């Protein structure tokens, strides 16, 4: 029974990491590049709207749910409760918790909060936006890669169940 529950949690974490990898990849590959091409005030306004819109239950379930499962897997690993696939779970969890969750909290969210306070038509807005486009996207690349590593690691753990 416990093994089936852990399998279900790993399956959910795999899906969550995949959703987040796709979400961050889309921003790095398309959304931010498009926002960098439109007139500056429009880019800021749209990103401000995106940052407000993303704060919803579906995003929170994927983002925070995957982090919580990563913590659970770390605890299970420490107690030796997933020995045959534990390293994959630990690796995926650390990748997600550090490279996705922590990077978001430490870098992307503070930049989002700064951007939310600027007037899109102001000189300050232009200065914040220029730095935001390069720094935010760089950290977003890290989040995309970390989520992809977590996805692959969790998938490897699932393969070991078969």
UniProtKB/TrEMBL annotation:
<feature type="transmembrane region" description="Helical">
    <location>
        <begin position="58"/>
        <end position="79"/>
    </location>
</feature>
<keyword id="KW-0472">Membrane</keyword>
<dbReference type="InterPro" id="IPR013901">
    <property type="entry name" value="Anthrone_oxy"/>
</dbReference>
<protein>
    <submittedName>
        <fullName>DUF1772 domain-containing protein</fullName>
    </submittedName>
</protein>
<keyword id="KW-0812">Transmembrane</keyword>
<feature type="transmembrane region" description="Helical">
    <location>
        <begin position="142"/>
        <end position="161"/>
    </location>
</feature>
<dbReference type="Pfam" id="PF08592">
    <property type="entry name" value="Anthrone_oxy"/>
</dbReference>
<keyword id="KW-1133">Transmembrane helix</keyword>
<feature type="transmembrane region" description="Helical">
    <location>
        <begin position="86"/>
        <end position="107"/>
    </location>
</feature>
């Amino acid at each position: 029974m416990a093994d089936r529950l852990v399998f279900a949690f790993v399956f959910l974490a795999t899906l969550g990491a995949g959703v987040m990898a796709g979400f961050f990849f889309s921003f790095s590959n398309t959304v931010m590049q498009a926002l960098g091409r439109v007139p500056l005030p429009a880019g800021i306004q749209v990103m401000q709207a995106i940052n407000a819109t993303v704060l919803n239950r579906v995003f929170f379930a994927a983002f925070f749910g995957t982090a919580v499962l990563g913590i659970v897997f770390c605890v299970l690993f420490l107690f030796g409760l997933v020995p045959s696939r534990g390293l994959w779970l630990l690796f995926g969890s650390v990748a997600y918790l550090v490279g996705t969750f922590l990077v978001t909290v430490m870098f992307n969210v503070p930049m989002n909060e700064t951007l939310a306070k600027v007037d899109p038509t102001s000189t300050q807005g232009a200065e914040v936006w220029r730095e935001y486009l390069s720094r935010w996207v760089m950290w977003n690349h890290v989040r995309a890669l970390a989520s992809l590593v977590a996805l692959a690691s969790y998938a490897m753990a699932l393969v070991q169940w078969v």
